[in-house]
Design a protein that fits this description.
The complex is a heterodimer.
Chain A lengths: L17 E10 L2 E11 L4 E5 L6 H9 L6 E6 L2 E2 L10 E4 L11 H10 L5 H14 L15 H13 L5 E5 L7 H18 L2 E6 L2 H7 L2 E6 L2 E6 L1 H6 L4 H6 L4 E10 L4 E5 L2 E5 L10 E6 L5 E3 L7 E12 L3 E8 L4 E7 L14 E6 L5 E3 L2
Parallel strand pairs in A: 3-8, 3-9, 6-7, 7-8
Antiparallel strand pairs in A: 1-2, 1-4, 4-5, 9-10, 11-12, 11-14, 12-13, 14-20, 15-19, 16-17, 16-19, 17-18
Helix pairs in contact in A: 2-3, 2-4
Chain B lengths: L5 H25 L15 H8 L1 H34 L6 H13 L2 H15 L5 H25 L3 H9 L4 H30 L2 H6 L7 H10 L4 H42 L1
The chains are: A alpha+beta, B mainly alpha.
């Protein structure tokens, strides 16, 4: 696994393309980025995920060169980029507003950066055509930005920022302005293009679905620090803290205490009884923990199931989402646990309804024991 | 649509009459064949002919044009730079004071501006003439340009300039090839405003002029003091004509551009 080219971050020998070393950025007394260290490897599609104001945009703007770190350094290919001004960096950015030049045509927008590079004038037209083909906009080359649709503008912005073939492409909330259907299509297009070109992409987004879909690794940021960096599935299945578990998707958090624990299995006492789960490491007896379990991993039944963990309650609320329904079940002790069920049957033949007494159950590997 | 009531119709008529009857009288009497301004003696264009043979008026018109073009160009450059610094310069000590000081000449009585400039030119020992009028006009019209340009800059998406830098522009290149073309309409209207202000300024020009330079407003004013001649009417009619045509062309052009743009945006939406 350590030499897997698709997972360079697991190889201790691999050298990262971009490295943030103890980077801090302050605006007056406000700390936007707090002593942050981060490695990004070549050909990665790296997502910075966080709520607005968490410092993710500042981090990206420092990489682009619009901001300078207050402390620490950023290296690209091992070279400190602090002395390199924004217009000389081998990094391009796609702006949230697209920032297309309204007085230039689509083709002129794409050629804008090339004209300011050392590419000979004779090759520029060819390169522009190539980029127009890549984003399937050849028919619109002569149009002005206001003469094309929002989705097309987004693709022009992408083509323009990729035209100079940068080492790194930064994408600032690239799909935020598109409606949901178009956004999902565009996510796959972005992945295709990234795979085709092999450029390192770094995307900044507050949309967790977007980050999970496109990225090879996701960094969850909060208040200037990174809470966890992992692949999308690891972030979802094995969050390292209650914050990350709660931030990504829906989760049930149950507070309890360890009553017994070995390397492979532990028992947690909580208000509603005991839970058997697999800890990541041996925990001391009496340690306060939070047991996190995703709603779709909680089964719901009308009779007592034959399961390692089960608890009785009654249906408080049902959120019908079309393909799935989320049942809010209240246990005898007042804890509300959410369980998700696929709506395989028609709504009228649903097994459970409001106020029904039900059993919730899950296996010993379904949840995760968090100490943070 | 709601019909005009008698009250509305009357007030509208009176309002327009108040605004345009004096101008209309002036235009009509410019075609009077009599030398007396108040007595109608038949249609004639002879005063226009006389006007074009009056070298004094033609010289004055030429001076006005020169002053207008030179001063509005200087005012546009300085005013645009001032607007850029005020909108983009970020926060620096005394920023409020500076922006206040840029706009102060807008409300300063012209007599005071004129007098203070006159005193300055005397103190510096500068010979008064075209040069000093140009300086004076550039000084007071600069703040108008600055107001027009900064109102455009406030709504300017700064990420456009950042995108230009990101794509390899130097800051100057980014300004020249992205910012300037986009704010050009505001810069042009600033220039036109400065030019118009310079054309019709009498007070400041008469303070700062010397014997060698007489602008058209000064010439008209001094001629009228000796009695209104139909020649002045003819000259004024020509000025009114020029201004009217200018305004109509400008508003038609803006409207056409807006309609054109809207249609294309609709087309783009339909293709979506």
């Amino acid at each position: 696994m350590s030499n897997d080219p698709l997972h360079p971050w697991e190889d201790p020998q691999a050298t990262p393309l971009i490295r943030f070393e103890n980077v801090t950025k302050r605006f007056g007394s406000f700390v936007a980025v707090d002593n942050l260290t981060l490695d990004i490897y070549e050909k990665e599609f790296f997502a910075l995920l966080g709520a607005s104001g968490c410092g993710k945009t500042t981090l990206m703007r420092m990489l682009a060169g619009f901001e300078q770190p207050t402390e620490g350094r950023i290296t690209l290919n091992g070279e400190d980029i602090a002395p390199i001004p924004v217009n000389k960096r081998d990094i391009n950015m796609m702006f949230q507003s697209y920032a297309l030049f309204p007085h230039l045509t689509v083709a002129e927008n794409i050629a804008f950066g090339l004209k300011r590079s050392d590419m000979p004038a004779s090759e520029i037209t060819g390169r522009v055509d190539e980029m127009l083909n890549l984003v399937q906009l050849s028919a619109f080359a002569k149009r002005k930005p206001h003469q094309i649709s929002g989705g097309q503008r987004q693709r022009v912005a992408l083509a323009r920022s990729l035209a100079k073939n940068p080492k790194v492409l930064l994408l600032d909330e690239p799909l935020a302005a598109l409606d949901k259907k178009l956004r999902q299509e565009t996510q796959f297009e972005l992945m295709d293009i990234q795979e085709k070109l092999g450029t390192t992409f770094m995307i900044v987004t507050h949309d967790q679905e977007e980050a999970m879909t496109v990225a090879s690794r996701v960094a969850v940021m909060n208040a200037g620090i990174i809470r966890q960096i992992a692949t999308p599935d690891a972030i979802y299945e094995r969050p390292n803290s209650a914050y990350v578990a709660d931030f990504i998707g829906e989760v049930n958090l149950i507070d309890g205490k360890i009553t017994s624990c070995t390397e492979t299995t532990c028992t947690i006492a909580w208000d509603g009884g005991t839970i058997t789960a697999k800890p990541r490491k041996k925990l001391d007896k009496g340690t306060e923990v939070r047991f996190a379990i995703r709603p779709e991993k909680v089964a719901i039944s009308s009779t007592k199931p034959d399961a390692v963990n089960s608890v009785q309650g009654k249906v408080l609320d049902i959120a019908y989402l079309g393909n799935i329904s989320t049942y809010h079940v209240e246990t005898e002790h007042g804890q509300i646990i959410k369980a998700q069920l696929a709506n395989a049957k028609r709504l009228s033949r649903r097994s459970f309804t409001w106020e029904d007494p039900v059993w919730l159950s899950w296996t010993d590997t379904a949840g995760i024991v968090l100490t943070e | 649509m709601k019909r005009f009531s008698l009250f509305n119709a009357t007030s509208l008529t009176l309002g327009f009459a108040f605004l345009y009857v004096p101008i209309l009288i002036l235009v009509v009497y410019s075609f009077n064949s009599s030398r007396l301004v108040t007595v109608w003696a038949g249609f004639s264009t002879k005063w226009y002919g006389k006007l074009f043979n009056n070298e004094q008026f033609l010289d004055a018109a030429l001076v006005t044009l020169k002053v207008g073009i030179a001063s509005s160009c200087i005012a546009t450059v300085l005013g645009t730079i001032a607007a850029l610094v005020m909108v983009r310069g970020g926060k620096f000590r005394g920023r409020t004071l500076f922006s206040g000081m840029i706009y102060a000449p807008l409300v300063m009585p012209e007599v005071i501006t004129g007098l203070s400039l006159l005193l300055l030119f005397i103190a510096l020992g500068v010979d008064r003439g075209v040069f000093t009028i140009v300086l004076a006009h550039a000084t007071f019209s600069m703040c108008y340009v600055s107001v027009v340009v900064s109102s455009r800059l406030v709504s300017f998406d700064e990420s456009l300039e950042e995108a230009a830098l990101d794509l390899g522009c130097t800051p100057f290149d980014a300004f020249k090839s992205v910012t300037l073309p986009i704010i050009a309409p505001a810069v042009i209207s600033g220039w036109l405003l400065a030019f118009t202000l310079s054309l019709d300024d009498l007070v400041i020009a008469s303070f700062t002029t010397g014997p060698s330079a007489t602008t058209l407003p000064i010439k008209i004013y001094s001629a009228v003091r000796l009695g209104v001649s139909p020649e002045i009417n003819a000259l004024s009619t020509l000025l009114i004509g020029a201004v009217t045509i200018g305004v109509i062309v400008a508003s038609l052009a803006t409207k056409r551009a807006a309609v054109h743009r809207k249609r294309q945006e609709e087309l783009a939406r339909q293709e979506d």
